[in-house]
Amino acid sequence: MVCPICSWSPDTSDYVLLYETRYWRVVLAPNQCLVGRCVLHLKRHCGDVADTTPDELLEWLTVVKIIESALRTAFGATLFNWSCYMNHSYRENPSDPHIHWWAVPRYNHQVEIDDWVFEDPQFGNPYDHYRWIKAPTEIHHQIAEKIRQAIGYIDFREER
Ligand SMILES: [Zn+2]
Cα(86) to centroid of ligand 1, in Å? Predict the structure, then answer.
């Protein structure tokens, strides 16, 4: 079975590449029910957080700081829900998980992008995992661009 996270790489129109470091890559999630929702995944195939190296963990912290700062700058995120589940991998036997962290910004206010209004109806509580908003491609890419600009990330591949 091909690992779906390894096959995300390096970039697709749904999982838009936002930022990468030596060990980690950040992509925009297709579901933008909470605007700026993204996924931070380890570049190597590793299935258990306990098996990450000290170097990878230190760099993870750096990336967390960068993403939180960018989402505050881009959309005024109020707080962040970070989670690492990997539940879906275990629907298969044998399982083949790959470490990925969900970076989910939470908002005490609406965010408007063009004529789209993003809300956080469960603010102050866990978000609804079944609430799905797939923004039009143009809006999805605007969201990605705002985050990239806030990070100051330049994807050099686009300039080739
Ligand atoms: Zn993988």
Answer: 11
What pLDDT sits at residue 157? 52
Q: How many helices (H) and strands (E) does the chain have?
A: 2, 7
Compute the distance from residue 154 Cα to the ligand 1 centre, in Å.
25
Verdict on whether the full-model pTM lies above 0.85: yes
- Residues with pLDDT less than 70, the chain: 1, 9-11, 153-160
CATH class of the domain whose range is 6-152:
alpha beta
The token pair at 90 is: 């275990």
Distance CA(85)–CA(102), nearest Å, equals: 8
Sequence spans of domains, the chain = 6-152
